[in-house]
């Protein structure tokens, strides 16, 4: 007779492992299936985010930023350094140590919370059965009262740029270069392309980013996007819009990329090429024909607002379902589903999910953009504040960017907050909290912010919504 659990989670990434832990905390007998295997044959938890995504990329971004500061910005503080060099191998070693510490930490959390970890590839069968195939090919079938699918996503490959060993790589390969490429090409000016391009540009690569779309960061508020593009160009990133890649060729260790832009066919030569044009939901071999679970027209698992599939007791969360492909969104969906399985009326506010790009300056946002509100015909008002007027930003020698607050013209309720600037990834949490509690711009304006802090820029932007900013000239009231 098959072993039975209250909950089986398929996938041990930030959606799956968080869901499993929360289910166990709620008293449910829980197992988590994960197929990722280390070189030594052991199970690796954490999924893409911890192993080849969010965490390693941030480690490299931090190291490369410190190197760039030492090379170019220390002198303004009176710090004199000579002959600064970067050991790529040490940088990678540090990155790998951080990843190992975090992934093994999840295993410890599983033990502490009594989550059963099952090593193998999971497949959903009919009747809420889960088939697990080990690396050796052994097959075991488990039964569950509830199943949570959290299999994540995989990088999209494009026919004009097939991946090759060492020369044309995806985002995973770009985290493991053993030296700084002299010339680096990046296909895709999205979050991943900008972050990885920034890492290697700081270390000395000549970076060209090819983006097929005619707008830069179209999902981001365009005032913020334009300011970001200006800063990236200052840093030496060569970002070419309306550039559609048509082919690639690797010859004698050199990658030749052909692409079309408004001037016709162009050619780019580089030592390495990173393909990061987006990610697709990972459902390969996941669903048996009789599982009853449906995919939508884009290949995502179809779920309702509470992540319930059409099969009662079967849920799906994270990158494999609709919505932004973000680790924090996956984790919160996992907690929501765990609570609902236990009978609690949990829900998730999809209007308050922050987005972040960890470049320098950082870009972060929550809520609606000015372009979205215009398209919807909603009356709104805007307040902005530049970091160049912030005393704390001046002290940190990091004055690029601004904070933008958008509020309803009728109710003053905050509809969106957008930031490009220092520590935007941390500041955006204040915006999320404000919007989660239905804050008005006046609420933020009446809140006491510590001085001197970068967060005062948010305070001033909220004041500026009604023309009341103190530390920058206000627009004249009509």
UniProtKB/TrEMBL annotation:
EC number(s) per entry = 1.8.1.4
| Protein name, entry field | Dihydrolipoyl dehydrogenase
- One Gene Ontology molecular-function label: flavin adenine dinucleotide binding
The organism encoding this protein is Oleiphilus messinensis
Q: Where in the cell is it found?
A: Cytoplasm
Q: Which terms does the UniProt entry file under GO BP?
A: 2-oxoglutarate metabolic process
Cystine residue pairs: 49-54
Tell me the keywords, alphabetical order.
Answer: Cytoplasm, Disulfide bond, FAD, Flavoprotein, NAD, Nucleotide-binding, Oxidoreductase, Redox-active center
């Amino acid at each position: 007779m098959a072993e039975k659990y209250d909950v089986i989670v398929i996938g041990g990434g930030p959606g799956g492992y968080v869901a499993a832990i929360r289910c166990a905390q709620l008293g449910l007998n829980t197992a988590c299936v994960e197929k990722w295997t280390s070189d030594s044959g052991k199970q690796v938890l954490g999924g893409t985010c911890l192993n080849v995504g969010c965490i390693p990329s941030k480690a490299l971004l931090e190291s490369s930023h410190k190197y760039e500061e030492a090379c170019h910005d220390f002198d303004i503080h009176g710090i004199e350094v000579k002959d600064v060099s970067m050991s790529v191998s040490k940088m990678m070693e540090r990155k790998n140590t951080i990843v190992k510490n975090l992934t093994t930490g999840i295993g410890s959390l599983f033990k502490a919370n009594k989550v059963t970890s099952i090593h193998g590839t999971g497949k959903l069968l009919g009747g809420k059965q889960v088939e697990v195939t080990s690396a050796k090919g052994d097959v075991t079938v488990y039964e569950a009262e509830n199943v949570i699918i959290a299999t994540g996503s995989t990088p999209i490959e494009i026919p004009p740029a097939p991946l090759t060993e060492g020369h044309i790589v995806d985002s995973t390969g770009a985290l493991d270069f053993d030296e700084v490429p002299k010339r680096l090409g990046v296909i895709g000016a999205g979050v991943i392309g900008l972050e990885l391009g920034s890492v290697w540009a700081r270390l000395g690569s000549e970076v060209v980013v090819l983006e097929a779309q005619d707008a830069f960061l179209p999902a981001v508020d365009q005032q913020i996007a334009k300011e970001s593009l200006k800063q990236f160009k200052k840093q030496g990133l060569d970002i070419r819009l309306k550039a559609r890649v048509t082919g690639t060729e690797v010859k004698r260790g050199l990658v030749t990329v052909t692409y079309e832009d408004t001037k016709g066919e162009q050619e780019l030569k580089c030592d390495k090429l990173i393909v990061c044009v987006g990610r697709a939901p990972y459902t390969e071999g996941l669903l048996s024909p009789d599982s009853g679970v449906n995919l939508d027209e884009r290949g995502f698992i179809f779920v309702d607002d509470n992540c319930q599939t059409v099969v009662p007791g079967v849920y799906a969360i994270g990158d494999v379902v609709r919505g932004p492909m973000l680790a924090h969104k996956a984790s919160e969906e996992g907690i929501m589903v765990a609570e609902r399985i236990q009978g609690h009326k949990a829900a998730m506010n999809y209007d308050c999910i922050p987005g972040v790009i960890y470049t320098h300056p950082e870009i972060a946002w929550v809520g609606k953009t000015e372009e979205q509100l215009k398209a919807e015909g909603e009356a709104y008002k805007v307040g902005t504040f530049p970091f160049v007027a912030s005393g704390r930003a001046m002290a940190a020698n990091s004055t690029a960017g601004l904070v933008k607050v958008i509020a309803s013209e009728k109710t003053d309720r905050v509809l969106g907050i957008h930031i490009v600037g220092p520590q935007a990834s941390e500041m955006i949490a204040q915006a999320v909290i404000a919007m989660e509690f239905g804050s008005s711009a006046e609420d933020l304006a009446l809140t006491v912010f510590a001085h001197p802090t970068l967060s005062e820029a948010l305070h001033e932007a909220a004041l500026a919504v009604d023309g009341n900013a103190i530390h920058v000239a206000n627009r004249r009231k009509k």
